[in-house]
Design a protein that fits this description.
The protein is α+β, with helices and mostly antiparallel strands. The chain contains six helices and 18 strands. The termini are close together. InterPro entries: Lcl_C (IPR011460).
């Protein structure tokens, strides 16, 4: 099976990343406080969702809604599409870093203890609960019914088949006893993509019947294209591979509903040494695209490189006394700014990543072509 490399539109350029095995003390404290707040908020949501079903235990925290899952990739491939030994041949490939930044972890499908026709999947890292089946499908393996795509107006308006309708089921107690079902954001839906499986999902937990060739809706609008929303396609059949397309709101899309607190927006701190810290993920980024100046990113232009050169460049990078690598796809997506509405500017926070080139950026993650 041939492998190619997944890169996002924000010319093959790249940032380097440093993922510490242990967060620096100030950020451990901040993350701990975030976890406490998240747990309290999630507890409030769980109390609201279980007023009439106290016999069904609510998930316990602490949760970390800003954290990132590992991509699920454990194999390495070279530029010719051949499998290689990760440790000996391809240092810096995604498959070399298992369970980084965090191990993938889901629980389910779980049958609700009171509403026994309702099945959910729990994400204990982020504290999110997913409906096990796409809207229109039923049963523990989603073999019943048929997926029902909807356009944005109908899905956002709470029509039958929408996520909002789930909140009215079971006599007003909501699907699986929860009344805060909603359309997921693009960050949330992207978090369940598995970059090795076929289809690209944790099929040990999410029934694979729920993921077809259709794209799935997110609540994140495309700020640069009026009337479009971002979507996720989990399919593997060429020429449509896993991707995050911008799709017009009048197009019917699949719906996968989620319950819980939304993932937070990025929270950056300029370390004033050519690096940027993300307080949500604990990741440290080089501020500038490779080839640019170290601080302020001026004076020189970004350097285009092939994938192998990009990995080697990050592996050998000397900056702030850290060890660097090429980021995986989940890590690079975490700094995308979906709210940037200026058409010709890249989708990134230019305050912390100035003069970022508008183009494609390499990741360490490979993907299937057949």
């Amino acid at each position: 099976m041939y492998k190619y490399f997944l890169f996002i539109f924000i010319s093959p350029l790249f940032f380097c990343i440093k993922a510490p095995t242990k967060l620096d003390p100030p950020y451990v404290i901040l993350q701990y406080l975030q976890n406490i707040n998240s747990t309290a908020d999630q507890g409030n949501n769980n109390n609201n969702n279980n007023n009439n079903n106290s016999q069904c235990p609510a998930p316990a925290g602490p949760f970390n809604p800003g954290a990132l899952f590992d991509t699920g990739q454990t194999l390495c491939w070279d530029g010719g599409g051949f499998a290689q030994d990760c440790t000996l041949v391809l240092p810096g490939s995604d498959g070399s870093f298992n369970n980084i930044p965090n191990a993938r972890n889901f629980v389910g499908p779980t049958q609700h203890c009171k509403f026994t026709s309702d099945y959910t999947i729990f994400d204990p890292l982020h504290g999110l609960t997913w409906k096990a089946c796409a809207q229109g499908q039923t049963g523990s393996g989603c073999a019943g019914g048929v997926a029902v795509p909807m356009n944005w107006a109908d899905a956002n308006g709470g029509l039958p088949g929408s996520c909002a309708e789930l909140n009215t089921l079971n006599g007003g107690e909501g699907y699986a006893g929860r009344t805060n079902w909603r359309i997921p954001t693009v960050r949330e839906l992207a978090s369940i993509v598995h970059y090795t499986n076929n289809p690209h999902i944790d099929n040990a937990f999410f029934p694979s019947k729920t993921f077809t060739g259709t794209s799935y809706m997110t609540s994140t609008v495309d700020s640069k294209v009026a009337g479009n929303n971002w979507a996720i396609n989990f399919a593997i059949t060429p020429p449509i591979n896993v991707r995050i397309p911008s799709i017009t709101q009048v197009t019917p899309l699949g719906l996968r509903c989620v319950s819980g607190n939304a993932m937070p927006a990025p929270s950056f701190v300029d370390q004033l040494d050519g690096t940027i810290r993300d307080l949500n993920t604990g990741l440290l980024w080089s501020q500038c695209t490779e080839g640019q100046g170290v601080v302020g990113c001026g004076f020189t232009l970004p350097t285009n490189m092939d994938w192998n050169t990009a990995r080697g460049n990050c592996n050998g990078k000397v900056l702030a006394g850290r060890v660097w690598r090429l980021p995986n796809i989940n890590e690079l997506l975490s700094i995308v700014d979906y709210s940037n509405a200026v058409l010709m500017l890249p989708a990134i926070d230019s305050t912390f990543f100035p003069l970022t080139a508008n183009g494609l950026y390499w990741t360490s993650t490979t993907y299937d072509s057949n």
